[in-house]
Amino acid sequence: MITLTPRDVLPDDSTAGTLVGRVWLPQAGGPAVVAVRADGVFDVTARFSTVSALCDEGDPAAALRATRGERIGDLEAILANTPPDRRDTARPHLLAPVDLQVLKAAGVTFAVSMLERVIEERARGNPSSAEAIRKEVVRLVGDDFSRLKPGSAEAAKLKQVLIEQNAWSQYLEVGIGPDAEVFTKAPTLSSVGTGMDAGLHPKSTWNNPEPEVVLVVSSAGRIVGAALGNDVNLRDFEGRSALLLSKAKDNNASCAIGPLLRLFDATFSLDDVRRMDVGLTVTGADGFVLEGHSSIGKISRDPTDLVAQTISAVHQYPDGFALFLGTMFAPVKDRDAPGQGFTHKRDDIVTIAAPQLGRLVNRMRNSDECEHWTFGVGALMKNLAQRKVI
């Protein structure tokens, strides 16, 4: 069971930055856009009906600071009421901090994860084959692509060499080729927040968390802030076929974002994101502990390049989008039998943390056991209209 306090959730500098969240308000029958401040949590829905609308302001951080809102309570009480096992449905609880934004994700953006995708492909989703294939792949292509610029002449030359050695892969294509892999992670409004259960497809037997930074981007393509995310991944499904990507990535509660959205202001910028280290801890009911990290400084493509490859003249997002930047974390630590690697077990607690963004904490359950997603775009519009905020 998860227990959350402000210290567990907030950035290291607490409420010094401009922090945005969403809270379910039982009395309103729907969500509120909130500002999280030192003196409490404030409902600003009367001014910004959605987080998407706030992010489309000329200066979202300044606009939020200029809006006092209505205080709805202490963050501590709202957090304590968020985990589903102990929730009082008559009191507010925290949600994921994005709403109408399309949930997008970039894949194969780090050298280490790129190699693991090649291994998954060759193993055809069988974890027992992965270690032998890992050694062979490293022998053929090495294990350090960090200095290789995707789409460069050097990358094209390497591609030709690997093709001649029958070692080329579709994952190398998006890892070092000119075009990034950007896919739709999950439906709008379907993400879960901190303290909530995150979902795994019940047929998956080889899966892992993916600790990532999530950029929040306005409809004009301007990056306005960031949060943490878990791009839950089914290695067996995607390893069997890349065409199973949607089933590997998009299941009930398989997209976790939080704990809050930190807007860019004088305390936090895109350069802070570029320097960010994202930590991961998995704690199992069986006593197993897995730790790792992902350093954005080692990303192969700059965040601005990934955003530019997502929104352009050929693709628009009128309500903006949230973009997972990818991860360098690929767990290979054996959990059970030697050579079997890592996979989740029921009730694993996953904590994804970064000093500037706080901690995203989720309990892992099968997707059909997680709270079913029932409040979609239509329900949101109806609710906001009834509250006379749109």
UniProtKB/TrEMBL annotation:
InterPro entries: FAH, Fumarylacetoacetase_C_sf. Keywords: Hydrolase, Metal-binding. The keyword GTP-binding does not apply. It comes from the Bacteria. GO terms for molecular function: hydrolase activity. The keyword Zinc does not apply. SUPFAM superfamilies: FAH. Belongs to the FAH family. This is Fumarylacetoacetate hydrolase family protein. It comes from Bradyrhizobium jicamae.
